[in-house]
Structures are given as structure tokens and as C-alpha cells.
Specification:
single chain; 3 helices; elongated
Length: 97
Amino acid sequence: MAFHVIEPLLSSRRQGAVVSKRKRTVIVVILIELLLAGGWMWLHNLAVTSPHANADAARVTGQVFGGAMGLILALSPLLYFMARKNDEREAANTRKL
């Protein structure tokens, strides 16, 4: 019985709603950056408000999360160009068939 509920979702997904790898890459990079920014804000708040935290905790947290966000942003053009090449390759294969 539950399959009758799921079946329209699966069939509509196959029919047209295809997201390109380029769009997926951009969305995932943005989500990762937002998660890192949220974690940075949360840990910074903990470091500032906690009486047990080291005096350098906020600085170290900023350096670590800033480095991670910078690394993700540095890799994002490479990931985007790889996704674009895969989209083009997939489109060429589709045209051949």
C-alpha cells in the first residue's frame, strides 16, 4: 500500500526534474560554507561566553574555520569545472544515442 504513495514521486523524478551536476556542485558548496559558518559562530559564542575556555579559543576557532572555508572556496572552481565537463560529456553521450 505504501508503494502507491511513493510511486508518483519516483515516476515524476524520472520524467524530467533533472538537476545538472554544475547546479548540484554550486548548491553543495554553498551548503558546506553555510554549515561551516554556523559552526564557527556557535563555537565562537561558546568560547566567548564560557568561563572555562582559554583566552585564545576564539582566535583559534576563527583560524581553523576560516582555513576550512578558504580551502573549500579554493577548491570550488575546480569542482565546478569538473562538473561542467561531466555535464558536457553526458550531453554528448545522450546525443549519440
